[in-house]
Specification:
2 copies of one chain form a homodimer. With 452 residues, the first copy, chain A, is of the alpha/beta class. Chain A is 40% helix and 13% strand. Chain A contains 15 helices and 14 strands. At the A-B interface, α1, α4, α5 and α11 of A face α1, α4, α5 and α11 of B. Bound molecules: pyridoxal-5'-phosphate (2 copies). Chains A, B: Homodimer.
Chain lengths: 452, 452
């Protein structure tokens, strides 16, 4: 799009990333009030903010060095009281399976935490280079993160025809391909799946843990969408709960890193860049190393406070409870309505099909593009779904993600054999989503009629 | 210090790092008000906040995606309008020597930006490993950052007897030592000096630039204390101004990275973790690479907004101007009073001497420790100044930094020949500083009398 060029649309919609505020979802009031009061404690002097907001802000300021969000936290792991809050949240969520505060490590976003772990895993050259089993499709930032940490991506294909379920036989197959190619030392899991929306069941999780144990793999589990399982059929079960409930030898031996972030469906606070990881069975020397690793630095304070609030929201009886619950419910309802609506809409279009999402904020429709487009893409030297997305943006002002970014081939992630897909974030105000879908239909139909 | 142990002091003072809020310096009201309003825009609905705060918050929210600080910024460099604000600030500061917005790169703290650049410089093994000329003393986090990026530290000694000035002959000497040891590709400069407080003059800067040009070194210049030159004798001159005013070939050829952070004396907003770098004459391919490097991720929004406010404070006539100027003046007065007072005090103690700081927030006194302590330290296998600091903390509840962390030896930074020093942050409320000094005197005199 050229600067100043005339376009047939007034507003551009960017639904290519999991960033709900960008497309107009409002933040949760309680969290913003607490953070504002921590930044500017004069707000605590009168009663313009709810009493529980003021209490919470005071509690949080008490755990900041010198009572200010402007001081560094003392350790690279973060503020001890917030580590404790997170550990309690995890313990509660997992029905009493205890989480230890010292296993919680904060960072400026999940991406940062993951990058730290990936660098620790990295090593070797050629045949001894570290490999990481990676789902296809996977979060779109992952292939570059692996590459940047000099890790070999060992792809395992998720089963689209089974709602993007993970298949154990495929893990074994993928691992066999690495003989003489690299040393696979970890497996990356996204559950609920980004971008697939698939929710793994306990049986699958147990199988994966046994597989990781027998192959001595570290489990890297991203669980950002734990708060957004849609409908009643599925339930989120955490890998750590299953692992610790499996008992010995698994519970004492399998190394697990569980990652979470402020960019959940409910919070949507991507711009704050706050994340944490819980590390289980990590070698104490490695754990100690993380604590002193200068490249990580001490994590920023406000995102830690925000994570503390996420882990300990208002309770019944608190003055903010009603509003908070209403806002959370509003997000949940919007999300499940949108996910259902968009999926039906997409499946109603010719040469497009979409697996319903069980969780998360993405749809990941398959594009059965006509030969004309595929050939044009080949001529231009781009992936067909990249061309689709570029033209959609230019002609209709909507930015969706080319699915190839979620599923690069392992050997050379510029070339790929998989079929074209698109990534659409559906956590948006319904009117915005409707506009996106309408534009998608006119673009798609125009494209098909021009090619066929 | 054991948990629960009885101690002869009630409060612990930590003056070991440049973290003024920790020891009770208050934040600047304007910045906190603006950030609070950006987080919680309901504060814009009435007139409880000053009108210029509300205007500023609206302007800043306008440049956030979707009008929310909860959205990612679009690029890994940061928000374009804030890049522009920073570039204008630099241009103004440097008397019109133009800075380009696209050369500004934000990150979650200076440390992060530096770490990114160090990783880009890193390469080679053995004799071809990249080396970085590093001052001794240097910022205490630097040796670990170099080590973590697998860079060889090539130390050059600053001249204590000349107020910690940089000496060109010493640069040449240091570089000669690296023949057959590593390939030196950059020189790190801290100006005004952390921890020395020395302010470089234009002549020195020109010499260093010529040296960098002739030896093909990248200039890595940390200029955090540019806002805190004490007294009237010295003035801060930026490396970029001198470089660009020197004309060709220098102005077009020497690669320069200038680093700045929210943890200046005036702001003291360490916990927000906001920094930026300006890159000059950087290879376009490298610049492009930084823009897509996933390990950096998109920088958090609030620290960018804070940097924008730092670069564009209230102007005469704005409703917050008076308060803002009073607060800034208060910091400046406190700092210069404390720096003078502490320096005189330290020089009044036996076996202690201190170079007066021309800028910044640290004093870095030399400790002429008695043989008894040095031998005890040797027996315990620690540096003498580490032992000094440990015992001072245990006996008097004051945490100062062992100077050895600012000046490790290059070959093996666990062993060091230099004389013991201590690092003291003097940006603290005067009463707190007085308490620190009183405790330091009683500890130091007790130590001397027990040993001699
Ligand atoms: C692999 C990966 N990286 C990064 C993110 C974004 O998280 P954050 O903004 O906390 O870095 C996600 C979110 O799901 C992710 O799955
Ligand atoms: C080398 C170095 N690293 C880090 C810092 C701290 O800055 P920040 O908190 O922005 O990372 C400084 C500040 O002077 C520094 O000189």
């Amino acid at each position: 799009v050229q600067q100043g060029e005339q376009k047939p649309f007034e507003r551009v919609y960017d639904v290519s990333s999991g960033d709900p505020h960008r497309v107009g979802m409002p933040p949760l009031t309680f969290i913003r009030q607490v953070l504002a009061a921590c930044l500017y404690p004069d707000l605590l002097k009168d009663d313009s903010l709810p009493v529980d907001v003021r209490q919470r802000a005071r509690t949080l300021l008490d755990v900041c060095e010198g009572g200010s969000v402007g001081s560094y936290s003392l350790t690279y792991s973060g503020i001890p009281l917030i580590q404790k809050t997170i550990a309690e949240f995890i313990t509660r969520r997992d029905g009493g399976v205890e989480s230890k505060p010292e296993n919680i490590i904060f960072s400026s976003g999940l991406e940062r935490a993951l990058s730290l772990v990936l660098h620790l895993l990295s090593g070797g050259e050629g045949q001894t280079r570290t490999g990481v089993l990676t789902p296809v499709p996977c979060p779109h930032t992952l292939p570059m993160q692996l590459d940047e940490a000099h890790l070999e991506q060992v792809s395992y294909q998720l089963l689209e025809e089974q709602g993007w379920a993970l298949d154990l036989a495929e893990l074994h197959r993928a691992l066999r391909t690495t003989r003489g190619r690299c040393e696979t030392r970890a497996i990356y899991i996204s559950n609920p799946g980004n971008p697939t929306g698939h929710v793994q069941d306990r049986k699958t999780i147990e199988e994966v843990i046994r597989f990781a144990a027998s192959e001595s793999l570290v489990l890297l589990v991203e669980e950002v969408f734990q708060d957004s399982v849609l409908g009643q059929e599925k339930r989120f079960v955490s890998y750590r709960k299953v692992l610790l409930e499996m008992g010995e030898p698994y519970s004492k031996r399998v190394e697990l890193v569980s990652l979470h972030s402020l960019c959940t469906a409910g919070m949507g606070e991507c711009g704050l860049r706050g994340g944490y990881m819980e590390v289980i069975n990590m070698d104490p020397a490695v754990r100690e190393f993380i604590n002193i690793l200068p490249c990580s630095g001490s994590p920023p304070i406000l995102p830690q406070l925000a994570l503390g609030v996420m882990a300990s929201p208002p309770s019944p009886g608190d003055s903010s409870y009603e509003t908070f619950m209403q806002e959370v419910l509003h997000v949940e309802r919007t999300l499940s309505h949108n996910a259902r609506r968009a999926c039906e809409f997409l499946n109603g279009l010719p040469r497009m099909s979409c697996v319903p999402a069980e969780a998360g904020i993405f749809l990941y429709p398959r594009l059965d593009l006509p030969l004309g487009i595929t050939e044009q893409a080949q001529m231009l030297g781009v992936e067909p779904d990249v061309l689709f997305c570029q033209r959609f943006l230019e002609e209709e002002g909507v930015c969706v993600g080319p699915g190839c970014e979620n599923g690069q081939d392992d050997d050379n992630f510029h070339i790929r054999s998989a079929k074209p897909t698109a990534l659409i974030c559906v956590l948006a105000p319904p009117a915005a989503l409707e506009e996106v879908l309408t534009r998608l239909r006119s673009f798609h139909l125009r494209l098909l009629s021009s090619c066929c």
